[in-house]
Predict the 3D structure of the following.
Amino acid sequence: MNVAIVNWRDLEHPKAGGAEVVTDELASGLAERGHSITWFTSRHRGAASRSKRNGYVVERHGTELSCRLHAFVWLRRHRNDVDVVIDEVNTLPFFSRFATRTPVVLWMHQLAREIWLAEAPPIIGPIGYAVEAALLSLYRNLPLITGAPSSAASFAGLGLGNPVHVIHYPLQQPEEGNRGESIPGRIGYVGRITPSKRVDHLVRALARVRSVVPHAELIVVGRGTRNEERSLRSLADRLGIADAVTFTGHVSSAERDAYMRSFDVLALASLREGWGLVVSEAARFYVPSVVYPVPGLVDSVQHERSGIITARQDPEALCDGLLRVIQNRALREALGVGAADMLRGFTRERFVGAFEQFLNTQRRPGV
């Protein structure tokens, strides 16, 4: 098949995240199986307009917003060359069904919903929240693929008639030699520092944890806006725990893994996730997670087996979950083993094979 994937970022983009990691897994996996793959995306500073990576072609044109217009033109130009289009929607769709008669498959990791209100400018946020379903209605009845059952339920709840299919993401597999040397009481966070991730809840939870476990600390691995980090530092200072919160900024993959190995527990307080890939990345090192009960995270964590899903979405409930893991070493060890074991069913071969099989049912007739 000739497959086109349209997505606003590629794996080399400075803001690339879990969505781009799993897209690379798909594109490279399909290429290994003999398919021709083009990933159309925006062009970031210093990037070539066209390059090859892991067996597939990357076409870069326009900004993160205008790349949709460029993709529209490119799809029209190549409408007779492409057998199926994967429209990967991250906040805004590409409107690809109007650019080509080639079959289009929607690939969405999560709805934005509350993220609009948390991260967009005050005027834009409510508008984005209100029109998200209206924009997706332009894709009414098209097949939609997502990676988690809770996300599938969210999409089905829109009532747009899209047949929703769950294809589980590939996860890096654990190795016994990867078992981390955790530092008791070290709580970790890995990811972007943005309002929708609610890192401030982690800081507030840490203050409560330290009233019981004085040596507890929080390591925040990742970067965000200068204002967001300044606000978090100020919060930690007001709570009297500034010396217990470390911001690493951007780090290499090797440094990130080294930090993960040292975590006693990973904590996530996101508004929602497509899956919460960092949970599974930490599980490679037998590190359990404490997370909020939100779409995505209720799938990547199995309560009482691979981690703890809190009863509520507030720092007090987060603190309770963290204390359970930190104070009960037998529980911490059992959850760590459970987290690693959970990964074993989510292989790359299974993911790519399921996606390939589905695309074959959707491809342009006669090819």
